[in-house]
């Protein structure tokens, strides 16, 4: 894609701080550095979001996650955890429309990254949960 910043990084038209590269993926530091070591992992093939992945591309990208995670853990012995985030489409906070995984090292509960899940369990009966599960299951190919 001509206007994709990640495609330009892959083509070395824009500099990056690479941490890993092979024929199919590239991992580099996110300039925002939400926490020290915040790394992006991207496929070299332009794929806009998770909905556009084929199984081969998904398997190839996600299979690299443990390698990068272990490298982060080894590089930063004070790392206490790791968030892996993948935002898809604008409403879900995707800002670069070349699919990417954020690997965000966690050091303390007070670091600069927060995720909060709201528990809405009381809003769903067991019957509703069965209906939702069935609706999704019938769409899985």
How does the SSE layout of this entry go?
Blueprint: H1 5-10, E1 18-21, E2 25-29, E3 39-43, H2 55-62, H3 65-75, E4 81-85, E5 101-106, H4 126-137
Antiparallel strand pairs: 1-2, 2-3, 3-5, 4-5
What strand line-up does the widest sheet have? 1-2-3-5-4
CATH A-level architecture: 2-Layer Sandwich
Task: Specify the biggest β-sheet.
Answer: 5 strands, antiparallel
pLDDT under 50 segments (min length 5)?
Answer: none
Looking at how many chains there are and whether they match, the oligomeric state comes to: single chain
| H/E element sequence | HEEEHHEEH
Shape: globular
Provide the CATH superfamily.
HIT-like
From the alpha-carbon coordinates, what is the Rg to the nearest angstrom? 17 Å
Structural class: alpha+beta
Q: What proportion of the residues is helical, as a percent range?
A: 25-40%
Proportion of β residues?
15-25%
Number of spatially distinct domains: 1
Let me know the average pLDDT: 95
Distance from first to last alpha carbon = 29 Å
Number of DSSP E strands: 5
CATH topology: HIT family, subunit A
CATH class: Alpha Beta
Number of helices: 4
Can you put this structure into words, describing what you see?
GO terms for molecular function: catalytic activity. This is HIT family protein. The chain has 141 residues and is α+β, with helices and mostly antiparallel strands. It has a single domain, classed as HIT-like (HIT family, subunit A), CATH 3.30.428.10. The chain is 26% helix and 18% strand. It has a 5-stranded antiparallel sheet, with helices on one face. The radius of gyration is 17 Å and the shape is globular. The model has no long low-confidence stretch (mean pLDDT 95).
């Amino acid at each position: 894609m001509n206007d994709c910043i990640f495609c330009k990084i892959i083509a070395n038209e824009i500099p990056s701080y690479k941490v890993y590269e092979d024929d199919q993926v590239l991992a580099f530091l996110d300039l925002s550095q939400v926490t020290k070591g915040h790394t992006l992992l991207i496929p070299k093939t332009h794929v806009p979001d998770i909905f556009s992945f084929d199984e081969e591309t998904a398997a190839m990208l996600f299979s690299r996650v443990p390698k990068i995670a272990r490298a982060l853990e080894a590089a930063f012995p004070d790392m206490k955890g790791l968030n892996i985030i993948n935002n898809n489409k604008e409403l879900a906070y995707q800002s670069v429309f070349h699919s990417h995984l954020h690997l965000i090292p966690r050091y303390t509960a007070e670091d600069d990254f927060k995720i909060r899940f709201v528990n809405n369990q009381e809003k769903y009966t067991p019957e509703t949960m069965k209906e939702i599960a069935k609706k999704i299951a019938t769409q899985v190919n």
